[in-house]
Amino acid sequence: MTLKFAVLGAGRIGQVHARAIASVPGAALVAIAEPNDKAAEAARAAFGCEIRSIDACAAADDIDAVVICTPTNTHADLIEQFVRAGKKVFCEKPVDLDVARVRQALDVVKAEGGTLMVGFQRRFDPDFMALKAAIDEGRIGAVEMITLTSRDPAPPPYDYIKVSGGIFRDMTIHDFDVARWLLGEEVTTVQAAASVLTDPEIGKLGDYDSTNVILTTASGKQCTITNTRRASYGYDQRIEVHGSTGSVSAENHREANIEIANAQGYLRPPLLNFFMSRYVTAYANEIAAFVAAVADGTTPPTTGEDGLKALELAMAALESVKTGRTVELT
Amino acid sequence: MTLKFAVLGAGRIGQVHARAIASVPGAALVAIAEPNDKAAEAARAAFGCEIRSIDACAAADDIDAVVICTPTNTHADLIEQFVRAGKKVFCEKPVDLDVARVRQALDVVKAEGGTLMVGFQRRFDPDFMALKAAIDEGRIGAVEMITLTSRDPAPPPYDYIKVSGGIFRDMTIHDFDVARWLLGEEVTTVQAAASVLTDPEIGKLGDYDSTNVILTTASGKQCTITNTRRASYGYDQRIEVHGSTGSVSAENHREANIEIANAQGYLRPPLLNFFMSRYVTAYANEIAAFVAAVADGTTPPTTGEDGLKALELAMAALESVKTGRTVELT
Amino acid sequence: MTLKFAVLGAGRIGQVHARAIASVPGAALVAIAEPNDKAAEAARAAFGCEIRSIDACAAADDIDAVVICTPTNTHADLIEQFVRAGKKVFCEKPVDLDVARVRQALDVVKAEGGTLMVGFQRRFDPDFMALKAAIDEGRIGAVEMITLTSRDPAPPPYDYIKVSGGIFRDMTIHDFDVARWLLGEEVTTVQAAASVLTDPEIGKLGDYDSTNVILTTASGKQCTITNTRRASYGYDQRIEVHGSTGSVSAENHREANIEIANAQGYLRPPLLNFFMSRYVTAYANEIAAFVAAVADGTTPPTTGEDGLKALELAMAALESVKTGRTVELT
Amino acid sequence: MTLKFAVLGAGRIGQVHARAIASVPGAALVAIAEPNDKAAEAARAAFGCEIRSIDACAAADDIDAVVICTPTNTHADLIEQFVRAGKKVFCEKPVDLDVARVRQALDVVKAEGGTLMVGFQRRFDPDFMALKAAIDEGRIGAVEMITLTSRDPAPPPYDYIKVSGGIFRDMTIHDFDVARWLLGEEVTTVQAAASVLTDPEIGKLGDYDSTNVILTTASGKQCTITNTRRASYGYDQRIEVHGSTGSVSAENHREANIEIANAQGYLRPPLLNFFMSRYVTAYANEIAAFVAAVADGTTPPTTGEDGLKALELAMAALESVKTGRTVELT
Fold this sequence. Notes:
Oligomer: homotetramer
Strand order of the largest sheet of chain A: 12-11-7-10-9-8-15
Radius of gyration of chain A: 20 Å
Largest sheet of chain A: 7 strands, mixed
CATH topology of the largest domain in chain A: Dihydrodipicolinate Reductase, domain 2
Strand content of chain A: 25-35%
Number of strands of chain A: 15
CATH architecture of the largest domain in chain A: 2-Layer Sandwich
CATH superfamily of the largest domain in chain A: Dihydrodipicolinate Reductase, domain 2
Structural class of chain A: alpha/beta
CATH class of the largest domain in chain A: Alpha Beta
Order of helices and strands of chain A: EHEHEHEHEHEHEHHEHEEEEEEHHHE
């Protein structure tokens, strides 16, 4: 039983997912939908699949599932279209930048009895999975305090920033999801600070590039998230979970596991510099998890609801920065 | 030229300072003032010094300087008494739990033209000094985001908690001072969350055992502080400073630099479990810095003003927890 | 231009190479030759290739190259057969356990103008390649002293040990090749010690399980190799190269990059436990290098001569153990 | 009960021991014997002790013990003189460069019922003690294979090399002692290679600067020692012990426990650059162990016999280099 896929959008992340589908047993890539002819042709050559329109994918009998990798403002519409067409849907984060629109789309998924998985790939990183397993096995006791460090090597282009929804909805949203996953209970209050430190232009676009967030749960567990848009040493992705009887942390990935010693000291290479190389295994595991959930008829591990909750935390963080208040979630 | 010292109080921290004085060239321990006869006798035996009353120390011609290690509620009075007696004063943190009382004492020091150093020993830790030097040498560019991790192995006794002034004034105060030292500009806003996670009894005493704080400066630099009163793996003391062109971090100290590998994995020993063993060199360096400042007639590196500022941050953090607001410092 | 492959032998290492061929652009797996019907069928199912006899592969027009993964005692014959049939040959190490037989086979390759690459996959490991690049870039100055640590998690079955040629020809041979690769000049003397420490049965089979070797070059560079057949903590594979102005080392690979801290200390997971998972990327890189050499008409990076030289070092090490002499190579 | 010491020789190592004596409870420094007036005066000023002649020290009633830090060629004579004078003797390594002379001196010690401790300070390093304790607690099972890495930052002056007895007797001798301590059984065979790689002048003086040694015991345990006289990154001192159920290693000491990350990578400071700073605690522990042995009337932990055995291994290593044979010890 092979799950036959169409990938909507052949941009950077679309290619990642196409490659992941090709590598996952039980999954096959049938078609890619991509309006840019050159990109479409490149994808056809690279993946040996057909090029079809989005509507043709929705109508096709030989397609069971779609991976939505189009621009954010089309996600909700496409989720609704493909769920109504009876396809299993995997959608890149976020569902939408607007909480109400997300809720609307989720209502359609529910009404149709559809399957929707939202792409929070970090939950599928082998190291983070090992960290989560250590927690679940009781090796650190009760989770109490979490520290998430997430730094991009460099900010995205201004044009992207303009439509990104801002740092909280674009970047921190991954950390909000990881926080929820690891805290094991819902966040009840959000405090956030945000600054423009790397490039004043980002401030002119109404966004921030440096932020710290504190999340608290009803039982008093706390999680801090530190984000910056610039890290000279690479893509910095760390998790530390402090529990009642121990602590567990996941370390960064480097370009190579070597060390050079000389009169200046002991030098290890910088970190992997790109989210796609850092999370290449996570992206493959994520598609495999989607395929498995469809095969087993179970709820995917990262649902539309997870996408909504992370977005609500992003909105609360922004509100905290704007109002100088601790924002309570209901 | 030897600076002749009296140590007031022969408790745990008094002994640390007495030992530091004995190890610092240019310093000599003349007397200890200690009301408990047994403790006084033990100190006399250990350090080969005299036992005198506090007033006798203040009046003595053969004493140039005092180290105040008595209970917190006596600090401000003793600072005033000894400054008026013309002695150089080193006072353990905090000057007082009350901001107004601290200001009053500092006014006396100023009026008398006295010398007051407040004991923030972390600034004198060799690793933290190396970290600060790396910043000052421009090796990470402009400081932008700081992460301070500070966890005690176990909470202090309830009796101590009752008079400690609470976690922010007792424990976080060290981190507030380190933050100010490393940020290089004054903090303008404070956000804090605090919970009781390790022992409900601490909550009944009106205190917290787990806290996260975000500090922001006028230019938007940010610092997070994470504190807990319980860490199974020892006394966790880490600093990470992220700058515009790099990052610098200081690591923990272990019981031994060995690693044991077997089928379970690779095991390094827990951390040093006690602030006195962790900071033994820092305490000696701190006294040496005091001696040097007196000898050179310069302002000590950690002043009464530093003590006041750290206390103000502690009060602001508590206010943020209580009010759910970002507290602005004027 | 795609290089069309047959893999001879569908055992463990044959499957590794079949998978590598499938993953390398410019390579295609056409057929597998495997006498065991069940294994042959499994390979056909897994790789979607044909099953053919060895002779059919040699005669086939649609096969350009072979990967020889059959038992060691067939390697030399197959090299000769396939070189004579005009195929490009990749042969798993060793070419043969007997130096004279290896020379004979290499003579045939030379006479036929054939292409032979011998499978020393460690040269293609990304970390070891980064280490070699650091040396070649002059980052440690002149190579002076090398330390190779190579420990198997557990000894192979007795039946394998019986036909393996002994620890030096079976296990150390990889280190001999790495030593030659990194020393940059030929070894002139060999000293070795060998013991049976893990299992007396290994001694009864005439073999050893624990050995140290010192290699020296004409200019006095030295390399030590330490091998054991049992390491409770996994597959231990480390290189350290000490040069005139610095040192470079490559670290082990773990099951996951996490660390758990508790009262016992800080625990990282054991090492990857199997040479195939440890060197999975190296095996793919190795086939890619073979494909590239064929495409470019260049000599493969690990030649039959390299296989011969490593075997000569293995024989010299054994002689040193047996005679208690430093063995000179001519 | 305080053990009253004279230190013979106020050179570099004499000062280290004088300082160690000052820091050890139960020990007091009474006198230093030093023919150089300037050095003698400096020692008097630094340690507040008397200056006496060697003979005066031997004759003095107020001296219980001596630490011999004079040139090597005087050690044996002084051991005999002071043992005959009834003093407890601590002698810096080596007792003598000549095995027969060492035996003679040990005979005198034995005949007089004297106490002699030889200065192998590495056994008293806290990390190496923790490593040894891990072995003794059975945490790695039976010791099987040991790797000792010992590299000096830079070679000593030519004048020192001339009288040093060569690298094996001067430098490797420490590793021979550590090997014996950790192997837990006597070495039966020695193989060694030695080269001149850092400075041809060292070769002209008849010495080597780079060496590897393999030691084997009767039961087949093996130990390799790698030594070089030049390491750009500092004083490299590592131990790794591989056992039947695990492995334990001791890591180097750095100038500071910080790490700087930037576009070049992650840089930790070089190693401590000097044996005196690296082993400062070991030197103090060593004197404390001597004081304790005298107080308890027990044999010191590093005896004259240990000095003799290490010297015999050094001579065997040299013989192996010269003859190209595995040297057997009887």
